[in-house]
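Troubleshooting log. The previous run stalled partway through. Resubmitting the same two chains, unchanged.
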Amino acid sequence: MSQPKEIFVKTDRCVGCLSCTIACAVEHSKSKSLFGAILETPVPKSRVYVEWVEPDGKVPLVCRHCEEAPCMYACISGAISRDEKGVVITDTDKCIGCWTCVMVCPYGVIGRHLEEHKAYRCDRCPDREIPACVSACPTGALVYDTVDSFSGKVRKHASRELLRAEGG
Amino acid sequence: MAYTEKILERSIDPSVHKMLERAEQLNLETVWDRYEAMLPECGFGELGVCCRNCNMGPCRISPFDDQGPKKGVCGATADIIVARNLIRMIAGGAAAHSDHGRDLAHTLLLTAEGKGGGYEIKDEEKLKALAGEYSIETQGRTKEQIALDLAKAVYGEFGKQEGFLQFTRRAPEKRVALWKSLGIDPRGIDREIVEIMHRTHIGVDNDPVSLILQGLKASIADGWGGSTIATDISDVLFGTPMPVRSQSNLGVLKKDHVNIIVHGHEPVLSEMIVAASNDPELVALAEKVGARGINVAGICCTGNEIIMRHGIPIVGNFLQQELAVITGAVEAMIVDVQCIMPSLGPLSECFHTKFISTSPKAKFPGATHMEFSEEKAFDIAKQIVQAAVENYSLRIQEKVFIPEDKTECMVGFSAEAIVKALGGTLDPLLDAIKSGDIKGIAGVVGCNNPKVKHDYGHVTLVRELIKNNVLVTTTGCNAIACAKLGLMLPEAAEQAGDGLKGVCQAMGVPPVLHMGSCVDISRILTVCAAVANALGVDISDIPVAGAAPEWMSEKAVSIGAYVVSSGIFTVLGTVPPVLGSKVVTEVLTSGANEVVGATFAVEPDPVKGAGLMIAHIENKRQALGI
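Second attempt completed without errors. Output:
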């Protein structure tokens, strides 16, 4: 079985341009275009968040689709499940809007859709090969990769740094 | 009273703490809330690497070396994009200052033609001095005849195609020769601004250094052109400021008076509002509606203009405009142009305050527009004041909350006033500089910016300078901050070093001299030029330095550019959007020294910023052998 891909965040790369949030909202719009999306009602929602941490930290946060997803275990209406690609999804028909998932999510990345009275979060862009936020990120702060491949690159980088340090 | 950490972090001014707590109680949003909601601000914008100059983009250059685009669609690098964006900011700032100057030239023209609705020529001596600079005949002519020629001459500077701007020739010969050799001696004010817009269009000037030089050229047209015209023609029409006592901060609003605030920049309207507020009919009307009188007060630079000419109190600087409305005691907030927050519209609707826009150039949502024209100036001003007076009865007493904070100040130090205080010659000042009693002169200017704790940058830097015997000249929002904190009183000499203290005490002046509004930085240039000429050197040789500790506007970018172009080292307290380009950053902070004899430095810590200025002043003293 091949490794599923995840959205990894390189916090040192984020410049806080919010391009990811625009792309996410556009992807979750009816028109799927920026100029169309800004005119829609309800306004399309972004599922990715960029937090500012003093003095200059800019941190993108998006649903981790945890293996032991606390939201999935906590959901009292059985609306949250994992699909065959490993993506944690909320069945909006079953969601009763109790916000238990919001309470247990350690990343705070579940939103409340005021018009639909439902919880919403990252769905990994089912219509796309690469999630919209990752495609939109101009600095490579968001990376769509498997754990194997991502950590392999981290190891490669660490190895180079180690050798450089040893070489003086 | 104990305020939350959040409130205390926003300002050093106790009146602001009180008003922010009041705003929280009333659930009203202010500029600080909007700033926090804006975070994180876009990194591309912060670095200056986004370009919207053509529709192949918008483009933005990734600041990380190994990822993302390194060139715009047209091929522009970060260096080109940053340089283009920077000089477009200069164009915006120079346009704003110069349009202000143009309005004054227009008012002088109408006045000379007898069409000014209430204006007169108040300073004939200055009129003749300016006429002399243009070689306009003054002998045996009426002031109106002279003014007509002068008005046409200064009006002509804006649309001039060739030649030079007359007031640039106040600069030392060496400086003018340098500008000529660099090709940055401006030809006409509008022309240099237009040329920036042309050069930064897709596919025109793509050399960062060439772009920056054009930026400097337009900025010189601002500082020594448009801004100088604004200052000097204002003096001719409204009188050259002389030292006067007044008061500052939100406590100048009066509980039992009709409070009228004039906010914005030009004195053309505010002068007439001041005159109309003394009209016996309107004063009687105010009493009829139950008020004890009409209290006019200023905010921002229009406030600086009227405080220094009439001693009209000043309510506060840029970041206090919303707080003034939140006092619930303002009958009318009358605005003209520049630095007026559009938030005042919806905010005024929470109170009885009438938000009145007056300039055909500046309209706002939620404002009542009462358009001003110079031909009918006094009549319109009376209508505006009447609207304010009639609004008094709608004031909601339970909503009134005026902090008691107010501070005495002595303001109005025009170049002429300084020379007069010195006994008619600059010599005593030069002697004090030579002896080291005064180490040098600093020009500390600029805006407020919620990125900096309100007034902290201004006041901390200024205190540090005077402690080290640097005489401070100031304009704009820095001047207002210093007034509020008591630095503009002769008694503030106690906070100065021994040398400066002695000079101030002997002359009875504060160690921090209020020289006016932001266009009045031209007064500081005039003083610097006079000092350099008296010493027979260039401005870049004399012990002076500039600072803008809390700057935010495009005007401030233009100011910084013309101050550095004039040879004055300048410290910025907030980071300009240029760090995305190594070339532009290097040119501004180091390379410029080889070209114009001065550089910028960026230092958010005001104590360290003052340190850089003092070190620079010491170096210049050493080089002069004093």
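Takeaways: The first helix of chain B runs from residue 5 to 10. Chain B has a mean pLDDT of 97.
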